[in-house]
Amino acid sequence: MQWENTPESSNIEDRRGQGMSAGMGGGGASFGTGGMGVGVIVIVLIISYFTGINPAVLLNGAQIVTGNGGQQQQVATAPQSRPATATDRTTSFLRHVLGETEAVWAEILPAQKSVRYTPTTMVLYTGGTQSGCGGARAAMGPFYCPNDKKVYLDTSFFNEMQAKYGGGGDFAYAYVIAHEVGHHVQDLLGILDRADEAKQNGSRTQANAISVRVELQADCLAGVWAANANKKWNLIDQNDVARAVATAQAIGDDTLQKSARGYAVPDSFTHGSSAMRQKWLMTGLQSGQVDSCNTGVE
Q: What is the pTM assigned to this prediction?
């Protein structure tokens, strides 16, 4: 992936090296978990791993159960982060990829959907930090928080991708980032709000199905970004695409569940099967059009 000569973004908060209390404020609580014990946190993360439910949701629910929901409100304010001035290759790469998403979506979102693009901010952290959606931990992987309009990324996830999820590679990493930015695009289009409302009015199985459609659409939007970015800067080749498709295959719910317990439970899927994730990434990549990403979530 040829990213070195593309635009750079300044919309990065670099919280790396601030320690595990970054974003906590006072009171000594850890990761926005309201003072829950380590044992509770570990159990919640294990449940999340086997069910596919967002750990932030489970942790927030656990706070209510343990009577610590009020403390969560006291620590929800993010810290003043140091400027993203690091010059390491990873930081440079992330600034360029985020800058590419800003340039592309600022052009095509108004053109294709008559909606102005307002950039998201990417928060880089190590170990854990606080988000507008609760505690962020490395075990969650990258995620988008609609409450504060930010993408959260512990850069150690790239090491996980190399070891477990398709082998990594610059365009594979960019796909993951663009997927989270895709959620921001969904937020700007009002899709996330409508999806959340539909989830509240349905069963757990129905809510999971809606989550799958939301995630598959974000995969497609990542492809839409890539198609348009490639037209502008000639970023990728077939090998890059193959690496991104390998990542989509490796992070499908069926693949992850079979790896964890030997079988898959489709009703519990929250992100989609490997085949579906590959399909929708390629749909966006081949079309370059937002309207091609009709996964039924609108």
A: 0.75
